[in-house]
Amino acid sequence: MTPVQEVEINAAGAASGPTPIISVRNLHRVFQDVHAVRGLSFDILPGQVVGFIGANGAGKTTTMRMMATLDLPTSGTITVAGFDVVNDPVAVRRKIGWMPDSYGAYENVTVAEYLDFYGRAFGFPQAERLRRVNEVMEFADLTPIASRMMNKLSKGMGQRLCLGRTLLHDPEVMILDEPAAGLDPKARIEFKQLIRLLAADGKTIFISSHILSELGEMCDTMLFIDAGRIVHHGSSESLRTQGGEHAVIDVQITGDPGKLVEWVLLNPGVDVVEVLNRGARLRFETTDAEVLATHLRRMVIDGIPVVDFHRESRKLEDAFVEMLERVQE
Amino acid sequence: MIATEPPVPVNSPPARTRDKVDFADWLSPMLVKELRQGMRTRVFVLTFMLLQALMLLNVVLSLASASRSLATSGNTIVFWLMIAVPVVLVLPLSGLSAVSSEMKSNTLELIFLTRLSATRILFGKWFAIVAQTALFILAVLPYVVLRYFIGGVNLVDELLGLFFLLTISALFTAVTVGVSPYQTRLTRVLIWALIIFGLQALVPMMLFFAMGSGISRGGPVFDSANLLALPFLGASLVMLMLQIGAARIAPAAANHTATKRIIAVGQLAVAIGFALFASDSRAITIAAFVLSVPVLVGSVCETPRSIPSIYRPWVRRGFFGRLVGRFLYAGWPSGVPFTILLMLGFGWLMAWQGFFAGEREVAMFGAVCGAILFPAAVVRLLLPKTERALGIFIGIQALCVTLGIVSLIVEEILDFPFTDIFAFLPASAFVFAVSQNLSGASSMTTLVGVIVTTAASVVVLLVALPRAWRTILTLEKQSTGTGSDTVA
Predict the structure, then answer these.
(1) Residue B375: phi, psi to the nearest 5?
(2) Residues B278, B132 contacting (CB under 8 angstroms)
(3) Which of B345, B202, B375 has the alpha carbon at shortest distance from B267?
(4) For a designed S-S bond to A219, which of A9, A51, B39, B46 qualifies (C-beta 3.0 to 4.6 A apart)?
(5) Using CA atoms, how far apart are residues B212 and A171, in angstroms rounded to an integer?
(6) Does the reported pTM lie above 0.95?
(7) CA gap B116, B102 in Å, rounded
(8) Which DSSP string corresponds to B136-182?
């Protein structure tokens, strides 16, 4: 995967640094009385895996559809690989692979015929088409089910088939709208593995999901959208650390945990979250590492028999919810 | 288990003309897919099997009968009915779900991201159904030959009859596939009305074949230049219907309006061509005018598209490209001058052919023109910002036709000249003209009413044009630049 390269967007909306493969500027989309997308601006660099996160109705799918030339912006611009989605939609379509959240299955069409149809539709001659179809089936593990009717596939198989179709014309940019939604854990892991392989191959992947922790593992950077606006653009780690005002530390001691509770009562800035069999979870009203170290040092000096402690990392979901609350305030 | 290697990237553009060894490679991808899919459907398989079984039964029963003649009128009616039902009804009606099913299952958008255009998608779907129909026809050929050998039938007549059925089926399929993307209640009502009227037309057609009217020996319909015009007008109907369907599903940046209007101009050209070289081609002119009506209605109702890329192909071609484009851009601002010009063209042709022999004929033509322009003028005057102009257009038209019919009935009952009151409504006036209820003062009143309303409608539309054209001129300028902002 490409190292994280967050693009700084200045006040004018222009990006500095390497040439982005996707550039969105002041994007708006209005549906009659609904302002679905409100002035989005962001850049994505070649080879990045970008997570696009937001609640239902936040404007994720609308934005992705405009990027995929399936909808028109009310105002603003989107360029993909240097081509404008409104003025050069055909050129953009050659560069992108679009995978919708529900792809729809044909009746009376086998997996191989489905891929063959798209190979023909992309204009590949026979030998080239057969090679690509075989490669894609091999990659997505579709060969064993090549002759199965596609409307009889499980959700996981269907998503793999849809991903295979997306790869047929070897797009530079892949736009995946909630590809893992509705998959069982095994299918989800397999799907994630496929995404990792594609990322390792240098493809730019723009992927949306509700499952933050899942995206956090595979994405270089994440875009958080709420009510049509970008509320955070950065790595999952930067979101976790952003705005956190307390730290939770799990402290293990020998003997009675009551000693630890008594110590907490005598020390301001510390609270007990939960008393455990061999210690307690404590909340410190700071995230500063030096202050935390001072607290822990004092705990040992005060005679608390500490045998182990570790700081709990902040959950991505919690960080996202807190950030949304801050934005709404 | 899934693979550990991603597919080998191939960045070279596909060479479209190399390595084509498979017959299917010469066909449209959509056609290949639709044939694979369509010939596995239950409707196709069951209908095909049933037809074969019925054909066999028909032959066996006839052979077993005392006369051993298959050419009895009852037997012939049954024979043609068995062919006509699947060929003219079952298969064409399957076209109604051709596009709507793809829209429902969300598969159409994925196809748009390939090289297939909306037109190629519609054409592939239409051709696949026609190919299946042709397969049905081929499958009954042995029975037709058997009928000939047993005696009592004219083989050439029978073969021409099959060809005629295939042609009608192809035209009807074009209509069903073309309207397939329109899923509103109104369109569904219109479709079913069309089917009911189509069924009514089917019965006399069956009798026509059954009674052995003798196509090969030349009937009244087939012994003139009209026969030569049928392929042209039929092809234009197919193209038009497929374009109407394609326009509905195509991405907003695709301009199908130009194609539809060019087809309408082609219909006028065919009519002029036959007027020049055939002795009496007035029927062709009327058919061409009727076929162009959907284009004219669309032209005056269409919402302008605020996408600069639509204008670019015309603007790039310089002064003449821009000039032609201003009649072919999507939207009513270009549609109004186009409609008026085409109406003038047909009007001139009809006058030259001596169509306007009396006030009734002039009133009838004027009523059709007025019926197209009047609702469009009402929309521009009262609801200039609406995006549902076509729905309002149909509503006004339906109201005017209803008023016309009611006033005719009331006039008949009360003996009061109600028709004079509504003569200024072109659609009502058309009903009066068609009902042949025009004579003397009534005829003149209708004519004057139609002329006044049509002229007033033209004035209203022309007054509304300059403001709309300002936006289009801005878009023309933007189309030469690189910005992509749509104009709200």
Answers:
(1) -60, -35
(2) no
(3) B345
(4) A51
(5) 61
(6) no
(7) 14
(8) HHHHHHHHHHHHHHHSSS-HHHHHHHHHHHHHHHHHHHHHHHHHTT-
CA distance A43 to A21: 8
What tokens were used for B113?
A: 């991201």
List CB contacts (< 8 A) between B6 and chain A: 139, 167, 197-198, 200-201, 203
Amino acid identity for residue B371 in this structure: A
- Which single residue is written with the structure tokens 């091999």? A138
Q: Considering only the C-alpha atoms of chain B, give the largest distance between any 2 of them, rounded to a whole number of Å.
A: 88
**Residue A171 corresponds to which amino acid?**
P
DSSP class of B96: G
Digitized pLDDT (tens) for each residue of chain A, 329 residues in all = 443 333 444 333 444 567 899 999 999 998 877 889 999 999 999 999 999 988 888 899 999 999 999 988 888 999 999 999 988 888 999 999 999 988 788 888 999 999 999 999 999 988 999 999 999 999 988 999 999 999 899 888 998 899 999 999 999 999 999 888 777 888 888 888 888 888 888 899 999 987 777 777 788 888 989 888 888 888 777 777 666 677 888 899 988 888 899 899 988 889 888 888 888 988 888 878 888 899 899 999 988 999 998 887 767 777 777 777 777 76
Q: Among all chains, which residue has been given the structure tokens 């169509």?
A: B355
B338: its two tokens: 């186009």
Q: Which residues of A touch B37 (CB under 8 A)?
A: 106-109
Does the beta-carbon distance from B33 to A201 stay under 8 Å? no
Cβ contact B355:B283 at 8 Å = no
CB B447 within 8 A of CB B367: no
- Mutation to test the A interface, candidates B103, B114, B249, B482, most A Cβ within 10 Å: B114
| Distance from C-alpha of B61 to C-alpha of B65, rounded to nearest angstrom | 6
A34 three-class SS? strand
What is residue A14's three-state secondary structure? coil
Cα B29 from chain centroid? 24
Name residues 121-160 of chain A within 8 A of B (Cβ). Answer: 121-128, 132, 135-136, 138-141, 160
Give the closest-approach CA distance of B88 to chain A in angstroms.
24
CA dist., res. B167 & res. B88, Å (int): 9
